[in-house]
Every structure is written in structure tokens, then in C-alpha cells.
Amino acid sequence: MTIHIGAKNKEIAETVLMPGDPLRAKWAAERFLTGVKQINNVRGMQGFTGKWKKNKVTFHGSGMGMSSLSIYVNELIKTYKVKTLIRIGSAGGMQKKVKIRDIILAMTATSISTPSSSIFKELNFSPSADFDLLSKAYEASKGKKRPVHVGGIYSSDTFYDERKDLNKEMKRHGVLAVEMETAELYNLALRYKCRALSILTISDHLLTGKALSSDDRETSFSEMVEIALEAAFS
């Protein structure tokens, strides 16, 4: 048990899939796992553990932003000895070839700052995904209905970002999408020698203005979860 996670040590699996929205964690656990048990509800941040094809899995919310994710990932790694963390979240498309509901496998994550910035000081550290997980996710994505893109994304501290010049540079340098958590997830996984990957579904688009409803964001990301589970246990 930690300050933010009320689970007992053995109630959390070595593999944790992390949506930002705790209600998405509940939806995914009920949809994909058997023998589901709720193992956390501290501050409304829900977590659930069950079995997927005989493999023990935990779905646990991370909240919005790198600061929130950092709290949960630190506690999951240090106290619960989690070895594999896969973010399953939404993102905003930044390239014409990336469409609503497309899936992104985040190879790298650019950021202006993260909770780890004070450690790196003047160093522009480049956090990246675990290559084994990335490769397995790419293989698992073959034959899926939704197009899958592999490349760099941008993790932003600011949801209501008014830096049009910055967005322009992200697009010009091939950044596929923007979200708010991945860079710190990769920082922590690399620091503590764990495996991490972000698998993202495009829920809105910076170029077209199109967007999914909040209900669609919560419950319609099945293929992303399937890819994550297959990658984790293949």
C-alpha cells in the first residue's frame, strides 16, 4: 500500500496497462479480463486486476498530465515491482496522414519539460520506448482494422496550448501526435530498467478540428487495448 494506491503488494500484476481516465481502466478490465477485482480507488483513481489468457494483468488509471502519471508510475515500480507499463491513451493528430481513430505506437516522446527535468538539468534527454515491446506491438497491429503509425510524438504540459509556432515546428519535424504523459513514462521506465510503451488512439485532430465525443474516448478504443495485451505477452 502506498499514499496513492491502496492495493496490497500481490494485488498488482507485473504488467500494468495505464489509461489516463480511471473509467477507461474499469471499462477495459471488464471487457478484456476474467476474475476482475478492483484493487484501488484512492482519490477516485481506479485500478483493477484480472487474467487475460491466464496472464495476470492490472489496468490502472494515471490521471491527466506527466505530474499525475509520475506519481502512480513511481509507486507501481518502487513498491509493487511492476516490470512492464503500457500507456493506452488518446492523442491529437498533427499530420495529414494521421486520421481520427488511427493508432500510434510512440517510438520517442519530445517535450519541453517533464517532472524529470530537474534531474537532467541542461541535458535534452531523449526518452524512447522499449524496442521489444514496440516491435511486438507492431506485429500485433498487422491485420487490425485501424491504420497504425510508428514514430515520434509530443508530450505537452499544457492542454490549452496557445503556442501556434510550436505546433508548427512539431508538424514540420514529423511529430505524429500530441498527448500529455508519455515522455515521463519513458523517463521513469528507462531510469528503473522497466519496459514501457505508449499506444495511442487519435481522438481529435489539430489540423481538421475533428474530435470524438467523451463517451467514444472512454469506450471505443478496443483495438489499442488488444495490441497492448498481445505485445505484453507475446
Notes on the structure:
With about 230 residues, the chain is an alpha/beta fold. It has a single domain (about 10-234), classed as Rossmann fold, CATH 3.40.50. The protein has 8 helices and 9 strands. The protein has helices at about 20-30, 65-80, 115-120, 130-140, 165-170, 180-190, 215-220, 220-234, and strands spanning about 15-20, 35-40, 45-50, 55-60, 85-95, 105-110, 150-155, 175-180, 195-205. The chain has a 5-stranded mixed beta barrel with strand order 5-8-7-6-9.
User: Major beta sheet, specifics?
Assistant: 5 strands, mixed, barrel
As residue ranges, the low-confidence spans are: none
Per CATH, the superfamily is Nucleoside phosphorylase domain
Mean pLDDT, rounded to whole units?
94
Strand order of the largest sheet: 5-8-7-6-9
What is the strand tally?
9
Oligomer: single chain
Task: Give a short synopsis of this structure.
With 234 residues, the protein is of the alpha/beta class. It contains eight helices and nine strands. The chain has a single domain (9-233), classed as Rossmann fold (3-Layer(aba) Sandwich).
